[in-house]
Amino acid sequence: MSKLDYDKQLLLAGTLFTLHNLEEATGFSRFVYPANLPLAIRPPDADAMIWAIGLLTLIAWGLILWVNSRPKEISRKNLLLIFVSVFIANAIFPHIVGTIVLQHYFPAVITAVILYLPYSILMLPKLYHSYPRHQEFFIVMTGGLSLAVCLTIILHFLINIAIKYLV
Questions:
Q1: Under DSSP, is residue 67 helix (H, G, I), strand (E, B) or coil?
Q2: Model pTM greater than 0.70?
């Protein structure tokens, strides 16, 4: 198996993330959740979603540029694994599941299926085999996913507060 070029793969992952987020921002600018949808928590409005998507994209590129400037390859490998893990989880929840539940287009389902799933399916086995101790693979994957979910929730929360009370 050939060695992964983590620098290039991170740039590719960042590009996929940006394309997905462009579709997502465009989709959410026109998307309305059905009023009768039984949700415990109402999703943020379109403005908050678009701001959060933009900020998450900037944060992702900041991380990519930062780890690509670092001497340690493990940082790039770990960040790539986090991106790939987020891609596959994000493709399934909320995009594919949302499309199935709503039975119509859910923002960013196209790039989730066309870009995220094939890339993740290709990269996950390669990344798994790149970790000499496979438990490290699962620790980075679950820790990275948890961190990404927490960051996203906190960002949405703060943006909703800013839009509601400061604007």
A1: helix
A2: yes
